[in-house]
Specification:
This protein has helices spanning about 10-30, 40-45, 70-75; strands spanning about 1-5, 30-35, 55, 60-65. It is α+β, with helices and mostly antiparallel strands and about 80 residues long. It has a single domain (about 1-75), classed as 3-Layer(aba) Sandwich (Glutaredoxin). It starts with a strand and ends with a helix. The model has no long low-confidence stretch (mean pLDDT about 95).
Length: about 80
């Protein structure tokens, strides 16, 4: 199971990012635990300065803007 965190204040782009990840994981049959992190202190702790950010299994893989579908698919293998 991949542990995926979407970092952001809850803005539309952050919500879209979380929805896309959940949708693509379901379509690919990948088991994930998806968590939204809205605490600015926690987001800064990952070194992410622009949101949405995406962290997979403890590693930041994206920051700033909604990631495209192909990029998300590559994260989910």
């Amino acid at each position: 199971m991949k542990i995926i965190k979407v970092l952001g204040s809850g803005c539309r782009n952050c919500q879209t990012t979380a929805q896309l990840i959940a949708e693509i994981a379901k379509a690919k049959g990948v088991d994930i635990a998806l968590e939204k992190i809205e605490s600015m202190a926690e987001i800064a702790g990952f070194g992410v300065m622009s949101t949405p950010g995406v962290v997979i299994d403890g590693q930041v893989v994206h920051a700033g803007g909604v990631p495209d579908r192909k990029k998300i698919e590559s994260w989910l293998g």
